[in-house]
Amino acid sequence: MPELPEVETVRRTLVSWSKNRVIKDVIIHYNNVLEDITFDEFKTKIVGQRINDISRMGKYLIFILDENALISHLRMEGKYFYLDTLNDEDEYIKKHKIITFVLDKGYLIYHDVRKFGKMKLSLKDNYASDKSLAKLGKEPFDINALQLYNRLHNLNKCIKQCLLDQSVMAGLGNIYVDEVLFDACILPTRKARGVSQEECQIIIDSSIKILNRAIELKGSTIATYHFNNNESGGFQNEHKVYGKKGCNCVRCGVKIEKMVVGGRGTYYCHNCQK
Ligand SMILES: [Zn+2]
Hints:
The chain is of the alpha+beta class.
């Protein structure tokens, strides 16, 4: 599943493809992608509007149009393609395309093998209060240690589960939580309420460092994440624990272990992380 660095990479690609383009038409191939709106209503509203910018909140992409904001969540395997002409469509794009935006120059195609991704429309000026976005916590770039501490110290779950909860802090998914907790030397199974304010600062610092590096390398390609018409990310080559079961810890040399925490495969060093 794309996490913050992957979604940010997609956002930057979308800016280069579609910023300042006008939506001339929309063709739907799979109706269930739309939430809380019929296709006819969706089409009537967005055709003629310009894509003035593409923003991001957590793992949500937001196309800022003249009147509306189009909110897009990629979920498991959603991705965008840009084609100059529909003659460039290959069988893979044709088979799994969900919606095609005909722009004044080129075609922006939302594609989703698993069909879990969603799109909805909101008003441009108050999209942040849309129910999907309003519940998001702050990102590591915006939260401070006291705010994170206040969110964690009443929670009865372990720290990994709490950091995966996008209402506590937005942007970390399964891969980056494991990398952050390793960097911060905190065991994923620690009770969140036992994490000190000082450790919250370390978690924030580790999150910013790791997310920035991952954004710089255009994300991690583990199974299917690609951007920019099938380019791969590079951060998977710098993972220190995720997917490293049985490898030697880069800090202390003992073997990286794997366990299940809240239903998610979790990698850690039992020696470095306390
Ligand atoms: Zn270690």
